[in-house]
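Data availability (excerpt). The following record was deposited with the supplementary files.
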Amino acid sequence: MPVYYYVVIVVLGVGNLVLAVVAYFQRSKQIRGNRLREQQLLLAEARNDLAGLRLERLNDQLALLTEIRDAVCRERRSPHQALGEDVAARTNGHSAAHHVTPSFDR
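Predicted structure:
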């Protein structure tokens, strides 16, 4: 009977050792997962910073393109257009032509 007792103790010890190895590997995976999440967080922060810089650059480009468009439109304006705008401004936006709706009697 004492031999069975020692065998049980040895089997329990080996089982305990196997469980400890499994726990060690699980903890190792967990630590690697935490490192991966930390790296992903750092990458996400860097990506957000780059997106902010890109947005600033796009706003700068938009302002520049707006200035270019306005300059080109001023250059293309003909003298007749300027005169017409001047006349329209003097008449306070009233149109010179009077629209008459024809009436048909039956």
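Summary of structural features: Residues 2-77 form one domain.
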